[in-house]
Write a structure and sequence with these properties.
The complex is a heterodimer of chains A (329) and B (295). By secondary structure, chain A is mostly helical. In chain A, strand 1 and strand 2 form a beta hairpin. In chain A, helix 3 packs parallel to helix 5 and helix 3 packs across helix 9. Helices cover 72% and strands 1% of the residues of chain A. In chain B, the strands form 2 sheets. Chain B has a two-stranded antiparallel ribbon. Chains A and B meet through helix 5, helix 10 and helix 12 of A and helix 4, helix 9 and helix 11 of B.
Chain lengths: 329, 295
């Protein structure tokens, strides 16, 4: 997308998000917070899928672990929310490094299966651990007082804290993708042996990418835990891992913020059609099949593609778009 | 007599349960390996077809009064045909792409199938009676052996051997092996490779459905019965390697026993031990126990 257009869209979106708590009858702020968490989750996931070319099928482990760690810190240890969230992020990043170190010993399809199995291991740990409340989940987690001054008990205060954290997280994703480090990740995605022969420590880059992606996914999980005052098994279940893949695929994995659009759509699907129960699962499955079969570019990728093909676009603009295609929206 | 402080009856009983689980792992990973070998698709929906097999048997029984024995034949055929259709209509379109798309496509199918059966039957389990011929137990003196479980283990071993025989010793098996190694060359010899792919996928998921019918009397019939299983089977496949059909069956049985033993000595870890073994194998022998280096 042309830079000016995407900039102005971003500013507009931010303005709308800032205004949400003043019009709760139009957009329910708690729902918007949830959507933002998933938007960050999907963009963080895409650090691996879109930008490093690694398919992880276990990201629910990071999302859910962060939620449980934060919940434990807030409810059992009585720590303030900033410490709890930080602990969740660090826990997830650490787990990401462990997953990465194990999973990159194999490639492609095997790597996906390994992450799925490791995530299932994490799922069983939380299912059996004492403090997690098993099927009931960890309930009534206190939101606490941020930095000792700002009570998060009100949704109004919490909303802006979450907005700031998510914006910070997304900015970080953007920075990582558009940094020399991100360039190396793309080199690995395009041709791993070449990157290796150029002297890059490919394994280390992959593990760091895993860890960063996991840590940012963890931030999303921790925030969701604070918002809903709940850490539950659904956060670590493989359905969640599948869901984040779908969000990324649907939004477009060739862009930085495309996955966020997928996250909005899938969250809205769950939110507005919740009453239909298992039918939602069927629809999600059908969307999945549709995306894989005929919509592999995703929404943003498709838009970019159409913009490039339009005859009125000048040659230089097309080249410009092509250059930006992988790097930015 | 005790074995490390555990009475031998309990010990053998858990090994027995482990073997039953291992039998399912073996049959499922066998099917996964065959499908992957030829189609280069990791069939996430394998567990969903397992579940569908159990449900078809259940529906045949409760709506049409079809008994266990005919169902053991009917359900795999019905599910196999459904699988072949899925291959023709959907899977075929993504063969040229990265294998990861196959995993994602079949994952979508899992959601559709699970959601569908949940809409129709709810999340809770439907009871499925053990056939009268196989009720009761054998008292072997040193342990009590439920007849049905012995039957499952026996059938699973026979199925694995039969599959091995078909692949290694028959004409269609030879075609299949040829197409696995060199699809274009095989096709140029006048063998209908696309048809072979369809048959293979249908047969593979039929095998999963067969295992589903076998499992129905043991664990009830419910929509998510397959997906929890398939993740364990994925771990087993990582341990054993998808390259070897024999290897995947042996690994499946072996890990079932390991799981049973864990239940005896440290039951909390029995749900996770397979994944821990996987992590250990990745550390020590990254290519897997029977693995040829893939990619």
């Amino acid at each position: 997308m042309p830079l000016a257009l995407s900039r102005s869209l971003l500013v507009l979106l931010f303005a709308v998000l800032v205004a949400v708590p003043f019009m709760p009858h139009i957009l329910y702020p708690v729902f918007v917070m949830k959507v933002m968490c998933f938007a960050l989750f999907a963009c963080a996931y895409n650090l691996l899928l879109g930008h490093t070319g690694i398919v992880s099928f276990g990201h629910a482990a990071f999302f859910g672990t962060a939620a449980y760690v934060t919940g434990y810190a807030l409810r059992e240890l009585g720590l303030p929310p900033e410490v709890g969230i930080l602990a969740g992020v660090l826990g997830a990043a650490l787990l990401g490094a462990v997953f990465g170190a194990l999973a990159i010993r194999r490639q492609g399809i095997y790597l996906a299966m390994i992450t799925l199995a490791l995530a299932q291991l994490v799922y069983f740990v939380f299912l059996q651990a004492e403090f997690t409340g098993a099927e009931d989940g960890m309930q009534q987690i206190p939101r606490g007082v941020l930095f000792g001054v700002l009570s998060l008990r009100s949704d109004f205060n919490l909303y802006y804290v979450v907005l700031a954290c998510i914006a910070g997280g997304l900015w970080l994703v953007h920075r990582i993708v558009n940094s020399p480090f991100g360039e190396v990740l793309r080199a690995i995605r395009e041709h791993e042996p070449r990157a290796r022969s150029l002297g890059y420590a490919v394994d280390r880059y992959k593990i760091i990418a895993f860890s960063l992606s996991a840590g940012l996914s963890g931030l999303a999980g921790s925030l969701k835990c604070v918002v809903f005052q709940l850490a539950a098994l659904t956060d670590v279940h493989w359905h969640m891992s599948g869901e984040v893949i779908l969000m990324t695929l649907l939004g477009g994995m060739s862009s930085v913020f495309g996955p966020a659009i997928g996250a909005v759509l899938i969250s809205a699907l769950h939110h507005y059609f919740d009453a239909l129960g298992a039918w939602v699962t069927i629809v999600v499955g059908l969307v999945f099949i549709f995306c894989v079969l005929v919509f592999r570019r995703g929404i943003v990728g498709q838009l970019n593609h159409m913009l490039m093909q339009r005859p009125s676009v000048t040659r230089s603009a097309a080249a410009n778009i092509k250059e930006k295609h992988h790097a930015a929206v | 007599m005790d074995i490390f402080g555990v009475p031998i009856q309990a010990f053998l009983g858990q090994i027995m349960l482990g073997l039953v689980n291992g039998a399912f792992y073996a049959v499922l990973s066998l099917g996964l390996a065959i499908i992957f070998g030829l189609l280069r698709i990791v069939n996430f929906a394998h567990g969903a077809f397992f579940m569908a097999g159990a449900f078809v048997a259940y529906m045949a029984g409760s709506y049409f009064g079809v008994g266990y024995w005919p169902a053991l034949f009917v359900a795999p055929v019905v599910v196999g045909i459904a699988g072949a259709l899925f291959e023709r209509l959907f899977l075929r379109r993504i063969y040229g792409l990265d294998p990861i798309y196959g995993l994602l496509l079949t994952f979508g199918l899992v959601l559709v199938l699970e959601g569908g059966f949940r809409v129709a039957f709810g999340s809770s389990g439907q009871p499925f009676p053990t056939p009268p011929e196989l009720r009761g137990v054998w008292n072997l003196g040193f342990m009590i052996l439920p007849v049905y479980r012995a039957f499952v283990i026996g059938v699973a071993i026979v199925v694995c051997l039969a599959t091995w025989f078909v692949i290694e010793k028959t004409r269609i098996g030879a075609h299949l092996r040829a197409a696995t190694e060199r699809p274009e060359l095989t096709q140029s010899f006048g063998i209908n490779v696309p048809m072979l792919l369809t048959i293979t996928y249908g047969a593979g998921v039929g095998l999963a459905a067969f295992a589903g019918v076998l499992a129905a009397p043991i664990q009830h019939v419910y929509p998510s019965m397959g997906s929890d299983l398939v993740i364990i089977v994925f771990a087993i496949v990582v341990i054993g390697g998808l390259g070897s059909i024999f290897g995947s069956a042996v690994t499946g049985l072996g890990l079932g026993v390991v799981e049973g033993l864990t239940k005896v000595y440290y039951s909390q870890a029995s749900a996770t031990v397979v994944f821990l073994v996987m992590a250990l194998v990745l550390l020590l022998r990254p290519a897997g126990l029977f693995g040829r280096e893939e990619n």
